[in-house]
Specification:
The chain is mainly alpha-helical and about 260 residues long. It contains 9 helices and 3 strands. It is elongated.
């Protein structure tokens, strides 16, 4: 004999039933629901404070993507390749021509290059030392270099048409020097920590007589990424507050009942 099929409820009917039961439970146990909601809010706020805003551009690409393979190959063959720019400023215009200042800058560069995350460094101290060696031959160190040697080396660079090279390493104010290096690819937070560590090492090595600051692409990139993600996290919190505020106004009750 044919059998009657049981009545099938539509998804909408099922969902309406679930919502109805939830609403009935909420009304019957207001205090319990309120305490649970407060506990969840407290847990959420405590968890949000521990979140670290970070992103890694290459994580958006497949693992076998050409860019990721090329990046790994470049680092394996050449080392760090992400540009990291810093500026070193003297108190007086032209003060960097002092052999002692150039020696401090050179020593700071060697300190940076000892860091596994940092590649070769370049500054006006390298150009000056190379020219002095070509003019005088091998020198044991900056202790043998005099102010006259530095002046002669810089004059020789200008006579040889190297003004463009010097202008890339010394600003027009004649007191701000460019120190260029590279670092390894990493997330925004990793790059920020590396840059901060390098900045602290340079400040300790150069002392208060020279002012060091980050410059170039890296700090700008980190600021853009950090501010974008921070604003997104804040916007979620603001959206929740606005939504619950509107509901409270509409219901004329802060309990949302």
């Amino acid at each position: 004999l044919p059998r009657l099929r049981p009545a099938q409820r539509s998804p909408a009917t099922t969902l309406a039933g679930v919502v109805s039961r939830v609403m009935v439970f909420s009304l019957d146990h207001r205090r319990l629901v309120g305490l649970g909601a407060c506990a969840l809010v407290v847990l959420a706020l405590s968890g949000v404070r521990r979140l670290e805003v970070d992103t890694f551009s290459m994580d958006f690409l497949p693992r076998d993507h050409t860019y990721r393979r090329d990046s790994a190959a470049i680092e394996a063959a050449l080392g760090a390749y992400i540009p990291l720019e810093l500026t070193v400023s003297t108190a007086d215009s032209g003060g960097w021509r002092n052999p002692t200042t150039l020696a401090s800058l050179d020593a700071a560069q060697r300190l940076l290059e000892a860091d596994a995350e940092i590649g070769p460094t370049v500054s006006v101290a390298d150009v000056t030392a190379d020219v002095i060696r070509s003019l005088r031959g091998t020198i044991a160190g900056w202790s043998e270099v005099t102010g006259a040697d530095v002046k002669l080396a810089l004059d020789w660079v200008r006579l040889a048409g190297g003004d463009a090279a010097l202008s890339n390493l010394v600003a027009d104010d004649d007191r701000t020097l460019r120190l260029s290096t590279t670092t390894r690819m990493g997330s925004a937070a990793q790059l920020s920590r590396t840059a901060g560590r390098i900045l602290a090492d340079l400040e300790a090595a150069l002392g208060p007589q020279l002012q060091v600051a980050l410059s170039g692409y890296l700090p700008l990139y980190n600021e853009m990424i950090t501010h974008t993600l921070d604003d997104q996290v804040r916007s979620f919190g603001l959206a929740f507050a606005v939504v619950f505020g509107i509901i409270a106004v509409a219901l004329r009750s802060w309990r949302l009942t």
